[in-house]
Please model this.
Amino acid sequence: MNDFTVHIVDDEDAVRKSLAFMLTMNGFGVRIHESAAAFLAIARSLSQAILVTDLRMPDMSGVELIRKLAAGGISIPSILITGHGDVPMAVEAMKAGAIDFIEKPFDETVMVDAIRNASERLGSTASRSEKAEEIKSRLETLSDRERQVLEQVVIGQPNKSIAFSLDISPRTVEVHRANVMAKMKARSLPELVRMSLAVGFANPEKNSRGV
Model:
């Protein structure tokens, strides 16, 4: 059994129960909460906690919940799940403090891997620093053109817009995107966004090309 608890926040009872069952079967300790407000009320008293929250909820969105936790100085590694996701939303979520962003429907292994990754945030600063250095090393393997494409992907630009901006064909953009995913060892766009933002690459605010 792991030494942390996964807290599930979702307004749909069926989703809470099915996700809780799946995570319990994978050896995780789980608690469920029917609203963001309910979780926020007890968040400060928690230790060794990981949050899995739906993005769209009636009382408070998952992004708003993560922002409120951060504003209150409460550090809990957070994973957002949604059925309406896109890359710009992933960027917004991760800028708010989420460490991962998973689109429904998702494979069991995707969620389990995300939680294991989140659990590393409960570990040492040295471990997180090593991860950042590894990401930076992968960025160094990208060509100039691949870095330009990555910048555009991370801020949510579709292939056609990237092609127009860089004066290349959409097919060439697809090839560069595939190369970037392979070199960065990213299994999904949300993971690619998470890694890029983790080391300050292509910050949407600054439009920086540095690492």
Q: What stands out?
A: Residues 204-211 have pLDDT under 50 and may be disordered. The first strand starts at residue 5 and ends at 9. The CA atoms of residues 135 and 195 lie 7 Å apart.
